Amino acid sequence: MSHDDLRELSGVYALGALEGQDRVRFESHLASCAECAAEVRALRAVGHGLAPIVEQQDPPPALRDRVMARAGASAAEDAVPRRGPAMPRWLAAAAALAAVSIGLYAATLRVRIQTLEIELSDLRTRAVALERDLERVRREADTARGAAFVLAAHDVLRIDLAGQPPAPSATGRVFWSPSRGLVFSAADLPAVPPGRVYQLWVLRGPTDPPVSAGLVHSEPSGTGILSTGPLTIPGATGLAVSLEPEGGVPAPTGDIYLVGRI
Amino acid sequence: VPADAARGDDPAVIARLAAGETAAMGEIYDRHARAVYSLACRILSDRLEAEDVVQDVFAQAWRQAGRYDPARGAVSTWLLVMTRARAIDRLRARRGRPPAGPDLSELDRAVEAPGQEAGAIAAEQVGRLRLAMQALPDGQRTAIELAYYEGLSQSEIATRLAEPLGTIKTRIRTGLLRLRALLTRQEPA
């Protein structure tokens, strides 16, 4: 609610006709808005004026006696234990002090809320980072599980790949089970330039075009891994890794980095 | 009817009341019983219940005399705020609503709030305010009366008058501001 919306409530509040959430909201606004607080005081004074303007009538004379009798009875009752005014001066002072303290407390709370908001924002940032880490770990675990599954297959083949002119010292190894999948791992590959990716190809004779086995997830340290599901390619003769535009391509276009024969 | 001048020493009488002087009760009663009774009659429309309220209010004044602080408002305002609270409590009980509704804590605070502008309005202002109320547009006057004399909440008023809540808020505020402007403008120099 804006200040103007809240200010509309000053009249109903001054007459005690505001309740529920609106009332809570308005009271917290009053704590910080001198303008509205002044208006409420002024309108409340008008409200007090409504009491004496009603049609005046005399109470029955006997009522005075009843009131006096009750006061007398209270006086007698209070005569022994009465300890002066119901609220001693020091207590009134303490109450006034408490009111001030509540104001200070509200200010403290506001600062505290700001601090908590900043902390919350930090925590949110950390949570996002953790989520990212978790996703990576999960991916690595999947890869490892997939690799173990492939390595245990009865039809698994091992193919070593050798570095080519762009990266003579790079090495790669593939374990390929047509029934369970393919696992590729490389070392000493040059870091991938921005906007590029290593792609693994299955080579088939001289007349058939290579088939993509997937994109290699590579680390700046030069290692790269790729794990696929079941992959059956009849007439496969070898494997090769080339550097391609990000997202991969349907047929190899870039330099060849690794090659191995089956 | 006591003259305004007699009310000037109201606080002193309340102080005597606080000290346990029963005679002080007679003085306070003679000065204010009529206003207390009249307000209770207006709110409750029942003389017998209004008499009960008068007894309750003066008993409360006796008990709480020590809490009365002249800096916070006139004795008449103090008594009439208590009167309204007690009468509306009874009205709510009659309607089957819990007695301690939101307005009543509000009323308690009205008595306690320091710095409130709760001086008793002068006798001639009573007449002016009465006329000003009559001169308000019906919608504004009715909404104010339902809030003040019947202790209805804004949503109850909206239901009673079959008007949107926003209209009620605005009418009450506009009406009170108009009454205030009128009182301030005609304040004697």
What is the element string of chain B, with H for helices and E for strands?
A: HHHHHHHHHH
What's the helix count of chain A? 6
Number of helices of chain B: 10
Euclidean distance between termini CA atoms of chain B: 25 Å
Provide the structure class of chain B.
mainly alpha
Q: β content of chain B, as a range?
A: under 5%
Q: What overall geometry of chain B do the principal axes of the alpha carbons give?
A: globular
Largest sheet of chain B, in brief, is: none
Q: What would you call the shape of chain A?
A: rod-shaped
Major beta-sheet overview of chain A:
9 strands, antiparallel
**Proportion of residues in extended strands of chain A:** 15-25%
Poorly predicted regions of chain B: 100-117
Largest interface: A-B, 57 and 82 residues
Radius of gyration based on Cα positions of chain B: 17 Å
Write the layout of secondary structure elements.
The complex is a heterodimer of chains A (262) and B (189).
Chain A: H1 3-7, H2 10-14, H3 20-32, H4 34-49, H5 61-79, H6 89-151, E1 157-163, E2 171-177, E3 181-187, E4 196-204, E5 211-215, E6 217-218, E7 224-227, E8 236-245, E9 256-261
Antiparallel strand pairs in A: 1-2, 1-9, 2-3, 3-7, 4-5, 4-8, 6-7, 8-9
Chain B: H1 4-7, H2 10-18, H3 22-44, H4 47-64, H5 75-95, H6 102-112, H7 123-135, H8 138-150, H9 154-161, H10 165-185
Write a structural description.
The complex is a heterodimer of chains A (262) and B (189). By secondary structure, chain A is of the alpha+beta class. Chain A contains six helices and nine strands; from the N terminus they run H-H-H-H-H-H-E-E-E-E-E-E-E-E-E. In chain A, strand 4 and strand 5 (211-215) form a beta hairpin. The mean pLDDT of chain A is 85. Chain B is mainly alpha-helical and 189 residues long. Helices cover 75% and strands 0% of the residues of chain B. Chain B has helices at 4-7, 10-18, 22-44, 47-64, 75-95, 102-112, 123-135, 138-150, 154-161, 165-185. Chain B is globular. At the A-B interface, helix 2, helix 3, helix 4, helix 5 and helix 6 of A face helix 3, helix 4, helix 5, helix 6 and helix 7 of B.
